[in-house]
Q: What sequence folds into this?
């Protein structure tokens, strides 16, 4: 599986993706699931993350890159809405090409998160479904997840709002990923981290986080220690057991 | 859906079950999923929790109660292994009775957690699958979950071992449940909490926890506050965003 999460806050956005793919536990590999579309004129910055059938997601990304080289891709979209439509249309066309009548048991579907900013518009964040339709993150629900989403959802639900400072959002997204990795073997290191600053139109803050990454290790350890400490100081219950 | 969790520690066991069932969001109801089998001679204590098809789980519990009244039920089992076998056999017989050839689209399956102690044996904890087969919790993996298990798994993975004190295990199970309820609408209050003390052969420590339960509220609030405080004190990252 996969786990990808993106959060849109007032100050900016954060995107985190793992890199493990598996077709059964004996076929595990590392593939990047975060794809950057920085634009060419300094007026746009787009990030695409993918989950689901690896053949489909790779084809979709290849086709989108090819469309860009022909001048009809994401870089040519006037709006983020049009970009989300293009990703959905491309994904549907790949599935229609690959899924034949004798392959009902294969799931060709893929989900995508597309986020970023085009000059003149606000930051936008979309979740594109395997069917090609899509939803957008809102002020009330400022985050989107694809893949193995459940393990890492509680911490986001507790911490994140549209007003969360960007650096806190980054920490929360990484902790959400860490919780998922600890509980699910099919999600694994290394991670892609992308921090987007509002109105920067830059994808420069992109980090490749391996197991030995010092900052990530410190964050994980501080969080584990903090949880343990919090646990020790919880009030005793009326159903005390001693 | 449902969420049930049970943990076996050296000092005792804890069982927590929610009580929400749904067949679509417009058919939500409250049914208890924790069933106590206290025995009749002070030599055994058994707890059964269920998830899955409500008709199947209710039938299984009814049949087990009837078997007990006839002297062939859980109370007559010499061992916990035999009890787990009986639950599995009963569940399979109900599914075989109800699932007809024109009902392939209906999932009649149910999962069960069966735990407790019979005098002369250690505390035991089993997960019985819809197929009727089962696994047992171990020293390495001292907890079992059924239903919506993913949201509440990370906190257990971080905190619980066989050596965890019983009162900490109770708090952890309740926090795992709270995290699930916050993130998934199909899991809801009230809760059943059962604390079993090793070699007590008593199911007296059974609590019915409603929204207004003071201890549970304090626990939830202390945990939320502790998480928020921990979050505030996390180290700044090399990818500082200001």
A:
């Amino acid at each position: 599986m996969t786990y990808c999460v993106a959060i849109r806050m007032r100050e900016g956005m954060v995107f985190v993706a793992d890199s493990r793919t598996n077709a059964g536990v004996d076929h595990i590999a590392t593939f990047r699931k975060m794809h950057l579309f920085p634009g060419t004129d300094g007026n746009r910055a787009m990030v695409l993350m993918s989950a689901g059938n690896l053949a489909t997601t790779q084809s979709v990304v290849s086709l989108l890159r090819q469309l860009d080289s022909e001048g009809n891709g994401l870089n040519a979209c006037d709006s983020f809405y049009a970009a989300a439509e293009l990703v959905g249309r491309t994904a549907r066309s790949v599935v229609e090409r690959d899924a034949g009548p004798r392959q009902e048991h294969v799931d060709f579907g893929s989900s995508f998160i597309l986020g970023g900013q085009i000059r003149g518009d606000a930051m936008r964040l979309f979740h594109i479904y395997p069917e090609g339709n899509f939803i957008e993150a809102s002020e009330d629900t400022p985050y989107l997840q694809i893949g193995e989403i459940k393990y890492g959802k509680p911490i986001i639900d507790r911490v994140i709002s549209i007003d969360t400072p960007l650096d806190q959002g980054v920490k929360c997204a990484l902790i959400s990923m860490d919780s998922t990795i600890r509980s699910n073997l099919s999600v694994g290191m290394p991670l892609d981290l992308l921090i987007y600053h509002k109105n920067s139109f830059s994808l420069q803050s992109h980090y490749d986080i391996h197991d030995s990454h010092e900052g990530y290790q410190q964050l994980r350890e501080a969080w584990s220690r903090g949880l343990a400490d919090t646990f020790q100081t919880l009030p005793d219950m009326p159903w005390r057991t001693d």
Summary: Chain B has five helices and twelve strands. The longest helix of chain B spans residues 80-98.
